[in-house]
Amino acid sequence: MAHALSHDPSWPRTGAWPSPGADERVDLAVIGVPTSRTSLSPSRAHETPTAVREALRRYSSHVVGTAQPGTRGDEAETVLDEALRIVDAGDCADPDSEAGEEAATRAIAALAERAELVVALGGDNALTVPAALGIAGTRLPHAGLITFDAHHDLRDGRSNGSPVRRLVEAGLDPRRIVQIGIADFANSRTYRRRAKELGVTVIHRDELHQRALPDVVAEALDIAGAGGGPVHVDLDVDVCDRSIAPGCPASLPGGLQAHEIRRAARLLAADARVRGIDIAEVDAAADAPDGRTVRLAALLVLEAAAGLAQRLGR
After folding, report:
1. Do the beta carbons of residue 32 and residue 47 sit within 8 Å?
2. Which CATH number fits domain 26-311: 3.40.800.10, 3.40.50.1010, 2.160.10.10, 3.20.20.70?
3. pLDDT higher than 70, residue 1
4. Can you give the pTM of this predicted structure?
């Protein structure tokens, strides 16, 4: 039996964000895109946006950082719920259908016109199509995409394994796609060759472990942002080690650690070129009993908010 969360007025919980008002300008907009029906693995990832919202209630929005990264100078405190106007637009309906995907694209595009940053909660990786298309809008030929993912997602057909291919076919320039964390034993020669032929920049997981993460993120942003258009980021949580992401059907042992993907989310959200982030491939129904994967996904939302606060100087 689940226990009710404690109440302490001196320790306010985060996540109970209001719906957006009509034509309201906001800093951060959250929207659920509960895709799962085309998943290559049996999945109930459509249940995840609700689970992430519940997990957010376990956290506060209090952030402490140093004034200068790498130093131990004066602390800089931020309470995100006070510093940012954050709204929750609810879930898109039936985003796995063609009509539902188009409606999700329109909903995200409308939010992108009013928000500095849109965070889309998946759902499996199929949500990256409407999320990236909505963020790019009419500027798709100039837009960029950064993925943190163990997989190329260039498969044929329509599934959670095909969003990058589908975005290229929709008009996204593959020379402005950067894939970070691509893993051995998770892809094929055919799709690796496809990535090379398209001109996709691939930063293999081993290379990622050998380089400073801020340098990798800076390189990815320069490539993805080279067209001058908005950049969308796909945080596929199966890039993480299976011990910390058991709720991702395709996560492998040896992937990223939680602190690495959390730091990446904050670094990326701090850059003004990034207008959208999606959090994908978490199946709440397959998570460990302690809910570690869903809790990590919730923290990625908060890390994105923290990065946005840095961007806005709050």
Report:
1. no
2. 3.40.800.10
3. no
4. 0.96
